[in-house]
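Both lines are quoted verbatim for reference:

——
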Amino acid sequence: MPAERPKLSISTRGVLYVLIPAIVQLSCLFGLLLLLNEEDKVGERDSHSEEVISRTNWMCVLVSSAVAGRIGYLETGSAAAQNLGHGALEQFSSNVAALQLLVKDEPGISLVLQQAQPYLKRLEDVLQGSNSPAHEQIAQIVQVSEQTWPQLMVARRYIVRPDKALSSTVPKTPPRYRQAAKYVISILILFTAASALIVIYRFGRTIARRLAITSDNTVRLSQGASLNQPVDGDDEIAQLDQAFHHMASELARAQRRKQEYISMISHDIRTPLTSVYGSIEYLESGYGGELNDRGSGMTERALRNLERVLQMINSLLLIEQLESGMTNFVLVDNDLDSIVDKAIESIQDLASRHQISVESKVDDTRVVADEQRTVQIIVNLLGNALKFSPENSSIEISSREKDEMVELRVTDHGRGIPPAALDQIFTRFQQVQPSDAEAGSGVGLGLAICKAIVQGQGGTIGVESEPGVGSTFWFTLKKSHAGDE
């Protein structure tokens, strides 16, 4: 049985994607630092060796110069020879001290210098001069020089040869470290580039691709299409996708329940209510016998209440059909003025009872629209305008062309709509004021139905209002080009 893959979250993967390359890069940088440090040490050893060799050779030169200058002065009395000897002798002590300080950590060289020190000291004393005759001083200097010089050469060979050997290897070492450093830098660059490509590929393949699938699912859900297959993995994105699929299934289940509820309303509630309405209307007409005043009043109230309930049920069924896409729109070429006239005719009696005039200022324009549904929109808007307009006022219907659309406007001079209510006025069961529902002004579905019909015909709907002045509801229809040919 294959081993189960460890479940890593996106944050853990991100940390690993960054941490592992960082550890490798830091290791390479640490190695590079060691190489550079080693090269610095080699350079210091090289400088030390060169200085030791230089001071050893200079010590020999000073000894030769001091002996030659002293003998030359004793033989000839030359001031130049005397100055040469004195100058060399003055530098001799300091040079020996500096050389001893340089080799203090090298026991072998220090021992050789210590062995030569008595001879050098004796030679230094002889070169200082005495009261002896010149030929005796010269003989003494030559004698001591012959004793000192072999010791000095032994020390020089011991010092110079190891350092020359070291010096000959030093130039070879730095290029080797520099080459290793170049290799480390090259590896670091290649590894960094490869790590970046791997991170981009992994994130692009495992994260961006799956996020694109999840994003596409949101579009599919809004369009009612089937969702993509669940994404692979067990991280946060996979959990989000699983939750989204679960939500979609719950929404589908809720949609089915809603359809069942609508069917129940349509069959089990509306049909009996329609039958009851017919029976009460039959009684109210007097066919079942003459009713007294009390009975007539009761039947009238019953009919009004039934009409209101049936209207609410019909509106609810209609908006469900519109928003679920179950309504087919017959979009054909129509005369807008004729549509408006039919809508005005439908509410003329109601307008006359409220002593409100309805004026049409619609241009001679043709639109692509479903005539019956468009009349329904205008009737709903006019009905709202009549409800909230004062007596002896007017309602105007006008139109204007806007690019490829025609905008129809219904303007009243009623109480207006508060700015806070404008954004929600086209949603279901929305009333401008709570008292509107209590006053029997409807259940707040009329404008939602208007919005659904307008959008179903490819248009938009909106409102402009100023409290205390009035409101203008507008919607757009596609302009017809049938008469342009």
